[in-house]
Target: GIY-YIG domain-containing protein
Amino acid sequence: MSHKNTIISYLVNYENFYCDDCLSKLCNINPRQTVFQVCTKLNIIGKINRGVGICSCCGKKKTVNSILKKSHKNCADVNPLKKIRSDKETLNPTKLNKSFNQCGKNFIEIKLKFENTDIKDTFSRFGTHTLGEILTEDKYMKLKDECYRIYKEYMNMKLGLFLARLKQDNDLFYKKFLNPYGDELFCKFKMEQNPLEKCKGIYMYVCNEEIKYIGRVKGNFNFYKRINSGYASISPRNCYIDGQVTNCHINSIINNIGSEVTFYVMPLEDDEEICSLERKLIKENQPEWNIALK
Model:
């Protein structure tokens, strides 16, 4: 497919406003100058609109491109990010505090799709190491003496199966291998496909229009990797003391509240801005899940 057709196809499918830099990334067209040249020609021949507006991906005011049926008459004054969802799906700023309201205009919802809930004993499916092998790792050395004294005959058993056996026998020693949320009920979900999934920036979980958690994605990461490969799917290793306690905690809470949770993102490009804004929003909103994880 030619660069021209690739760009037109993308703008038709997603029907939003994209700057040349973001189109270059989203359409895998390099260098960025190629996108500039192609979009300029498409605008001249009347295939696309090209004018100053706010990019739906990075959230910055730039020259943006959209399919012809969209008008840029007032695009400098309207944030097209808000138009991705209907008004009823947009956060109600009157129910949020002032500090968030100042930034809230840039947050948009990305739908979450749940695939499974109430997943139990995830830790038991960890089969990479035996009990004896895991006791050689730094985090588990403190358990070595007790294990060799009481459970010596299980040293060659896969760790997950060993802990599952202890739990079945009501032996609470198994919890010493797990993080504080490693034996919770989990769920599996994912972000629905969205052009913003390849962006980085600030994200938040909201329940009943109350901000519960604020986090950031920076560097080479993006929202897709952070959510779909992080919070949304808990691996057996995540459950252990050297795993991902934050992922386990938040996933277990989301499992309990289910469809009541909504997910919002603010696309940003600059890592320094991302970090400073995250700190500011957490300080001023004091989200419940952030506080619990301190």
